[in-house]
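Lab channel / #folding
Pinned by the channel admin:
"Please post every new chain as: sequence first, then the structure tokens as a reply. Keep commentary short and put observations after the output so the thread stays searchable."

First post following the new format, from NK:
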Amino acid sequence: MSLINVKNKAAMFFIGSALILFTVIGLLLGFNIETVIKVTDPEVIEIKHLIEQDEDLEALQKIKVAPGNLDRQISAVLTSKAMDLEPIYFFFLADRVFSRNKEKAVFWFFTGTIRSYYDAFRCKDKTARSGLGYLQAFAPKTAKYVSSTKNKSQFYPAAVKALDWDEKHPSTNSPVWICKHGISAIKGKIEIYPEEDWASIRREQRDRFRKSLQK
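Reply from TO:
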């Protein structure tokens, strides 16, 4: 065997070992491997740009109809921007990762639930909360999995992780997206509770979710 071949094999072994080590460290430290996937598809790049431009309705429409072979790239985009996304995105994300990682899907599903309830209860118009019942329709596979599983305790770790993630990354988004579903919004008036009330609303909704895990 030539010296060049030996060096090439040694280099490949080093690169492979480094990738494995990176993955292990990432998992231990809580990094999401989805975020290191390279986004190259033009359709996904457009979705990314739409999100960055706050064109959420158009971005969500494109995510909804995007083919399954783009799941990893779409997941990478949504995961990298998770702290700034409206809750509805998390339901789409849940189903995009479902086939690869059911626990991660449930995590994002619960994260979307926690965030959406916080937003809905910041709307003064209580009828806006009716929109909460439609969100699971954007994650049909994950929603069916959660609702059909008799042993709900198996979801507890994912739920705790969702609460922990939400605690460490408080939402900075406006709740207007769901307040628009209220009757007053249809009449041209959107009212949101004052910002000084948001901390208590957030605490109440997190407690509500936590208690729901014990049922």
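NK: The chain has two domains: 1-31, 81-212.
TO: also worth noting, The radius of gyration is 20 Å.
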